[in-house]
Amino acid sequence: MGGGGEAIVVNSPQPEATVSSPVTVSGTASVFEGTVQIRILGADGAEVGRAFATATAGAPERGRFSADVEFDVGEAEDGAVEAFSQNVASPEESPQRKLFRVEVPVRLEP
Hints:
This protein is mainly beta. The protein has no helices and eight strands. It has one domain: Immunoglobulin-like, CATH 2.60.40. Strand 4 and strand 5 form a beta hairpin.
């Protein structure tokens, strides 16, 4: 199991992997209520897919999480998998809204 001090660790997909929809995003997390938000971002940074996963344990424990995330792109492009814990106490547009954010660069295939 990965993740010494990091709150969220994405084990799959690996950085620079080529992925198609749905992509399985998995890893470990130690976050509030074990809830991990997952977004797929296109080349322009816009969201092209979203899901959430619940880890097998919440903080302070570390649990495993996995989710199949569907996304839609018209052609192959660079993108990213973003995983984070949501701070619901912060306003929607606030930079503090996303806690423990991790981004994995990937190649998105239609």
